[in-house]
Amino acid sequence: MFKITSYILRQLSWTTFFIALVLSGAIWLTQSLRFIDIVLNQGLPFSTFLNLIFYLLPDLISIVLPSALLGSVIFTYNRLTVDQELIVLRSVGVSDWQLTKPTLIVAATVTMILYAISLYLLPIAFQNFRNLEHHIRNTASLSLLREGEFNTIQGLTVFIHSSEGPKNFKGIIIENTRDPQKPFLIIAENGSIIESEQGARLILTRGIRQENSPKTAQPSMLYFDQYTLDLSAGFPINPNRSRKPHEYFLKDLFQPNKTQLSLTQRKKFRAQGHQRILGPLHALAFALIGVCTFLFGDFNRRGRAKRILLVIGLCCLLQVATIALVHFSERASHAIDLAYMILILAILSPLALCLQGLEGFKRLSLLIDYFTTKKN
Fold this sequence. Notes:
Blueprint: H1 2-42, H2 46-54, H3 57-82, H4 85-91, H5 96-138, H6 140-143, E1 150-153, E2 156-163, E3 168-176, E4 184-196, E5 199-212, E6 219-230, H7 250-254, H8 263-295, H9 305-328, H10 335-356, H11 358-373
Helix pairs in contact: 1-2, 1-3, 1-5, 2-5, 3-5, 3-8, 5-8, 8-9, 8-10, 9-10, 10-11
């Protein structure tokens, strides 16, 4: 029996890994395309792009793994049925519970992986992603300064003849129109960008500041050895950004700081905490629903397309119902109890049928056959 369990377990594991890899790669690629614009248009290093897409992985895996497990269960047991391997296994005395055991092992492993991601890796990844995104936004003005081009930065038009490194420039022309009533022009030989808590500053040396008087329309010239221009006026920097619920650990979600958060925010935090607990359990529910719906019933040479659609429909309905109830719990706290009841029922019902034996499966088979063979 160990060899049979190992055989099915190996197929489930590799199929789950392959489906998860393909889905993750496809979604990861589409999500990363929006960051390519940041790298190409804002002149950020390629390492920043890699960090951005790397921090997306935990969230992506937590979304893909339950669906990959469901696809693996459907594919594996459908192949076993079509190749009539299930008939052979049952004829040599393999029980339905023994055929379900590999699915339960893989599902439990996937669930534990999802809990590790949801409770630990996900908040850390979101924190790093948001910190990096915040840093990119606050230093956007720096990355837009390119040599040989007229760079527009909300009220500033900057031309740089050449650059010596990412923050040192030569031959600078700046037109400042932030105040339409008092525009001015600056020409300088050299310039260096300095970052501070108050924002980015452009330190100009050996140049001229020209401004036209609004009354006389006569130009006034100011020669300087050093001049400081605030680059962050159009991009105000807020070093203390607000944190989203996804960035908090489970303990902080259920025990937030009441003095800093409103009642509505605390409800959102609790809903996010319950979502962290309920999310990984979907993998276990999907696998058990799939194997119980797919294993039992009469053999049909025309295939089991209707059963596959039934499994997918039930799992989608379960996912939508729990997500909707979690969000609705922000208004009505009792909705979260219903979400737990539905998900636990979706796990325990097929599990109880497996433990109950043949009679339980016969009742389930009659119900499944009724819905899948009923003529329109």
